[in-house]
Predict the 3D structure of the following.
Amino acid sequence: MLVIIDCDIASTFAKIDRIDLLKRIFSKSDLCISMENNI
């Protein structure tokens, strides 16, 4: 399963040096970080 993570969410985890939490939460999924906001 592909999980698309908003770049703001990824940035928040990166700022606290905990990207590993996202990897653990979605361990059975492929992660993709969105790079653009097309709204």
